[in-house]
Design goal:
- With about 450 residues, the chain is an alpha/beta fold.
- The strands form three sheets. Strands 2-8-7-6-5-3-4 form a seven-stranded mixed beta sheet, sandwiched between helices. It has a four-stranded antiparallel beta sheet with strand order 9-10-13-12.
- Helix 7 packs across helix 12.
- The longest helix has 24 residues.
- The chain folds into three domains: about 35 residues, no CATH class; about 130 residues, Aspartate Aminotransferase, domain 1 (Alpha-Beta Complex), CATH 3.90.1150.10; about 240 residues, Aspartate Aminotransferase, domain 2.
- It is built from 16 helices and 13 strands.
- The radius of gyration is 22 Å and the shape is globular.
Length: about 450
């Protein structure tokens, strides 16, 4: 049997204890002045340590730190900075969506909904996929409501990938992907996206696949770069996924934020993809309700059943009074979705012009909430250090692009991600502050 005896003098254990103590994970009687007797040396492969390490949150000395999003939002509050870091909108949801939620609460729809989600929302999701993309879904067997897109991604990854398996993502990648891959014990393999267009090469796509590939995670429109994966790359990935019998999990939460006259094309619409693709989306970005945590995953019934096998042990169910409200939102007329897109495109252009005027070099944004900008020409160097200093002076928060990649990887260490999902006047104020960098 493995020796799991306490190691109170272990430096690594003491650091972990200090971290956990900050979250009040032990009672005051247990805190004392050192690690409780039940805390053993966990510098091996504890699931939570795998998760933190995979998300890049464990330093070389074993110190566990918070996410860059939490750190930068705290700096914004501390210094009164304009927060263009975390991607949440300042706008409110459409009135009909809000009122439907209020009416549901008052009507007593506050208990557990069905495990797959209320039928009304599942039907609305299926109607949405048919209306916008021509995809036909059975709302009874091919739609699952989740606690946001993050739970849909987590349940899907944990359902299909474990120790000995490989999961492919694009790089840069949303940090939650890496965390869940690590939690499940799978190996994270990436396809680098080359600047400034943030597209992969055919050789990089081919090299990522192996006989151990079990899941391919795609995200287009892409967070953090704002790129849209070119159709020929999607087709190549789908063909390789079929060759290796891998499941594709496609994160499409920015589906209604595609600019310059283009329209979103789901991965599942690619020939040969539907039979192996789980499509993930949510209400958060489309209806400005990030706090409601209403997401969904759609796909073949057999794949959805597997995801339910994990999801039911995570949140089980969530958001009863919000599900009908999201259904109402999904049934809004085309004019709503057109206005959303046009508004965000205007804000993209406002921020892009301001960044260029301030001396940044920007990458093109085809979709999402984000612009990637490099400040080397205005004297900014390491992106992590630059993000922290910009929060203080001139008082604008961004996120270092390196937070979305692995140490020593291909992601730029000088680029920053700025979010433009803010009102025009907030963006204008941020631009004015950034222009002081040229003086």
């Amino acid at each position: 049997m493995e020796d799991r005896s306490p190691c109170a003098e272990c430096e690594h254990t003491r650091k972990i204890f200090t971290f956990l103590r900050g979250f009040r994970l032990f009672s005051p009687r247990e805190w004392g002045t050192g690690p409780p007797s039940t805390l053993t040396c966990v510098n091996s492969d504890a699931p939570w340590m795998r998760t933190a390490r995979s998300a890049g949150l464990v330093s070389a000395d074993g110190t566990v730190r918070t996410t860059i999003f939490a750190e930068m939002s705290a700096l914004a509050a501390q210094h009164g900075a304009i927060n263009l870091g975390q991607g949440y909108p300042d706008d409110d949801a459409p009135a009909v969506v809000l009122e439907t939620a209020v009416e549901a609460i008052r009507a007593g729809i506050n208990q557990y909904p069905p495990g797959r989600g209320f039928a009304d929302l599942r039907h609305a999701i299926a109607e949405h996929q048919q209306r916008f993309y021509g995809l036909k879904l059975d709302p009874e067997t091919e739609v699952l409501v989740t606690a946001g897109a993050t739970e849909a991604m987590a349940a899907s990854l944990l359902a299909f990938a474990g120790p000995g398996d490989e999961v492919i993502t694009l790089e840069p990648f949303y940090d939650a992907y890496a965390a869940v891959i690590g939690l499940g014990g799978a190996r994270h393999v990436t396809i680098p996206l080359g600047e400034p267009q943030f597209q992969p090469t055919s050789a990089a796509i081919d090299a990522a696949f192996s006989d151990r590939t079990r899941v391919v995670v795609l995200n287009s429109p892409h967070n953090p770069t704002g790129s849209i994966l070119a159709p020929e790359h999607v087709e190549r990935i789908v063909a390789l996924a079929a060759q290796h019998d891998a499941v594709i999990v496609s994160d499409e939460v920015y589906e209604h934020l595609v600019f310059n006259g283009r329209r979103h094309t789901p991965v599942a619409a690619t020939p040969g993809a539907a039979e192996r693709t789980l499509t993930v989306s949510s209400a958060a970005k489309t209806f400005s309700v990030t706090g409601w945590k209403i997401g969904w995953v759609t796909g073949p019934a057999a794949l959805i059943d597997a995801v339910i096998g994990v999801k039911q042990w995570l949140t089980y169910v969530n958001g009863a009074p919000f599900q009908g409200a999201v259904a109402a939102g999904l049934r809004l007329p085309d004019a709503f979705f057109d206005e959303l897109r046009d508004t965000m495109q205007r804000r993209r252009d406002l921020l892009a012009a301001g960044l260029v005027d301030a001396g940044f070099v920007i990458a093109p944004t085809a979709g999402s909430y984000f612009i990637v900008a490099d400040g080397s020409d205005v004297g900014l160097g390491d992106a992590a250090a630059s993000a922290r200093s910009l929060a203080v002076d001139p008082g604008v928060v961004a996120i270092p692009l390196s937070a979305f990649g692995r140490a020593g990887g291909t992601v730029s260490d000088t680029a920053l991600r700025f979010a433009f999902c803010k009102p025009d006047d907030v963006i204008a104020q941020a631009v004015t502050r950034l222009q002081s960098l040229r003086r």
